[in-house]
Amino acid sequence: MSSTITTDVLIIGGGPSGLATSIHLANKLKSKALNNRIILIEKGSSIGSHILSGAVIKPAVFKELLPEIDFSEIPFNAKVTKDSTVFLRENSHIKLPIHVPYMNNMGNYIGSLGQICKYLAEKAEEKGVEIYTGFALDEILYKNGKVIGAKTKDTGIDHNGQQLENFQEGNRIEAKITIFAEGTRGSLTKMLIKKFKLDQGKNKEIYSLGCKEIWALPEGNIAAGQVFHTMGYPLNSKEFGGGFIYGLKDNKVALGLVVGLDYKDPTFDVHAAFQIWKTSSFVSKILKGGKLLEFGAKTLPEGGYYAIPKLYVDNAMIVGDSAGFVTMPALKGIHLAIKSGMLAAETASIALASNDTSAKSLQHYESLIKNSFIHKEMYPVRNFRQGFSKGLIVGGLHFLTQLITGGAGLFGKLTTHADSETTSKLNEFKKKTFKERFKGKLEFDKVLTFDKVTDVFYSRANHDEEQLVHLHVNNPEKFKDVNIKQYGAPCQYFCPAEVYEIHLSQEGHQELRIHAENCVHCKTCDIKSPENGITWVIPNGGNGPEYENM
């Protein structure tokens, strides 16, 4: 039987936005002499195990969140000392003489967001926040149509849906206020947005996928604090994205490739493009003699200001990446996530003090957002990402006019199409496919370049193999007819972890095999699958990657 736990505030997610919410709320409640209970639930086995970011971080918000601590305590890795943008070709490169607007990183810090979240969790617990890791929440609880909390996932169910001897019904966690801080494409946040139509009148959220590795290098290959962002190779003018290289202490480097998921080629493979990017003369020189330590992948919301949903309903608010708080072209969201959590905490403290957690009370959160630096940073680039939907040349012209007009451009609000709608059918894609473009470059040497399965090993991904598969093909027959036959099963390419495999049966039919144990929880399949063919469902708590320094 399930049990019911009651709390004043339930925070779903142990990333920067959820932890900032908990810390600031604890401070606010203490200042009001209130003793409300705060529970934070994280699906990863520990805080940080599911956290991945570049990450170059704007530090000022940490001083605001933790004014009492010595800033040097925060486990940043290195302060940015050199910052360059590089246009890549396969065998040459050009360093741009000036920064792309909004992309100057001097004064910022490089760090492992996972390690920073571990630090924030310690501070939260010192303030009385209860943090529970390894629990997956898969259902929103309602009473009279209003959110009253969430329920943990039933466990002890085999892959056929049958209860095992160790079956355990999930626990109900009922709260006066629930904060959705699940990160990108949060599964419960999706349900909340759909139920209350919180995205009505908003642009469709669009995403990018980033693949990242951490390497140990010979001394002298790159200096700690040295930052490079790359444009160009191996992407063409119709593919939005670029690479990053961040020098870390102790002769390590974080590097990756981020690509917008609005590309058209049904065979495009971000992970393979990342491996090819590493073979360019510029990147391979930095990695020469090095050794891979860790791999991960993550999607990022890029829709910008016009894609932010309504942020509150009765008894609930949305913060961080779940709300789409990422600025483009800087591709930064950590400081926005933390600030949004702090503003949600301010709103929650007022609501608890007045015993009014209605939507009317919580709309104060949205007002605070509009008067914060979140709005000041996101509004001027409100049309940036949409402008690049027709390629780099048109996008560049859009961006130029936006810079001149304060973000408006020549056409006002630009709209977006969901990434699941932008892929071309195989017979309609008339240009060279990804495989054709990079023929001869897709065999990986496991020294500089790695296949997906090898990289997954370095993510330390692990799943209970008895449990129900957490990747749901919504309509298997339609999937065969549409996703496989018409689109050529793009899932086998866009997944960075080789979860999806097309198998030829003895009768000669193409069949989909799902290797859910490889999943690194990037949720690309939930985002990019044509006609929304796949839904990512949260697996058992504690399952997934085990990132250490991502």
In words, what does this structure look like?
This protein has 550 residues and is α+β, with helices and mostly antiparallel strands. It folds into 4 domains: 4-70 and 115-202 and 309-380, FAD/NAD(P)-binding domain, CATH 3.50.50.60; 75-112 and 205-301, D-Amino Acid Oxidase, Chain A, domain 2, CATH 3.30.9.90; 383-413; 420-536, Alpha-Beta Plaits (2-Layer Sandwich), CATH 3.30.70.20. Helix content is 27%, strand content 24%. The chain has helices spanning 16-31, 60-65, 113-126, 187-196, 270-278, 281-287, 334-354, 359-370, 373-378, 384-387, 392-405, 434-437, 452-457, 476-484, 491-494, 524-528; strands at 4-12, 38-42, 56-57, 78-79, 82-88, 93-95, 109-110, 130-133, 137-143, 146-152, 155-157, 163-168, 172-180, 207-216, 226-232, 241-248, 252-260, 291-301, 312-313, 316-318, 471-473, 500-504, 510-514, 534-536. Strands 1, 2, 8, 9, 10, 13, 19 and 20 form an 8-stranded mixed beta sheet that branches. A 7-stranded mixed beta sheet has the order 6-5-15-16-17-14-18. Strand 15 (226-232) and strand 16 (241-248) form a beta hairpin. Helix 1 (16-31) packs parallel to helix 3, helix 1 runs parallel beside helix 7 (334-354) and helix 7 packs antiparallel against helix 8. The longest helix has 21 residues, at 334-354. The two termini are 38 Å apart. The mean pLDDT is 96.
